[in-house]
Amino acid sequence: MFAVTSQGRFPGAVATRSDRSSEEGSPVVGIRQQRQQRTRLALLDAAASVFAQRGYASASVPQIAQEAGMSTGAIYANFSGKHELFLAMMRRVIESGAEARQRSADHITDRDELLEQMVTTWTSTVDAAPEVVLLMAEFWLYALRNSPQADAVTDLLADVRANLAASIVGAGVVTDPDRAERMAVAVQALAYGYAMQRLADEDSVSPAQLVESVDWLLLGAAPER
């Protein structure tokens, strides 16, 4: 007699389509997916910590696994390796920033107040979570040192600019998307330059100065109303 598994199958048996369909809709599968999602998020958090502390080149999969309190197998079950984990972690950082800007802009209709709130969200992040700036620096260095992988980095930075451009249009600064995109390039450069200076010497530049500089830039680039 063949032994039967707890799922009622012979060992090594391949699940049929009907078997898989019934499993996918089962509570067990839902719990498994939730557990996997929690594991993935914990690994991304650990990766952010290790990459910020050690840099991409010096960080290792075992170090990230140790930081997460998991095995290296947990990492390879969710990511192909350090490269994919790094990019997934950076996408999460960038998307979190976009969501924070959106939340800060909700229910604000005044143009000047809206722009100030958007910039202040970034300056607050720089002061409260400087590791974000370190990760962005690693992101740029990664692109410069790994030219075959640079497209993935430039795509993510382009997503940031697209989000900024949408915010500029949403704030009523301009209505032309192409003009907003060009303005977003300048705002992005200002914001990242500010972050680097602030992290190296916080007395050299203040949040109010970035708000003022972005206002000057947008005021000068926007057509007269």
Report on the structure:
- It is a single chain.
- The chain has ten helices and no strands.
- By secondary structure, the chain is mainly α.
- The N terminus is likely disordered.
Pick out its properties.
225 residues; mainly alpha
Task: Give a brief outline of the structure.
The chain has 10 helices and no strands. It has 225 residues and is mainly alpha-helical.
Sheet having the most strands: none
General shape: globular
Number of helices: 10
**Helix fraction bin:** over 70%
Alpha-carbon distance between the two ends: 85 Å
Strand content: under 5%
Order of helices and strands: HHHHHHHHHH
Number of strands: 0
Uncertain regions spanning at least 5 consecutive residues: 1-23
- Using only C-alpha atoms, the radius of gyration works out to 23 Å
Report the structural category. Answer: mainly alpha
Kindly state the mean pLDDT as a whole number? Answer: 84
SSE order and pairing:
Blueprint: H1 17-24, H2 27-58, H3 61-68, H4 72-78, H5 82-105, H6 111-128, H7 131-145, H8 150-170, H9 177-200, H10 207-221
Helix pairs in contact: 2-3, 2-5, 2-7, 5-6, 5-8, 6-9, 6-10, 7-8, 8-9, 9-10
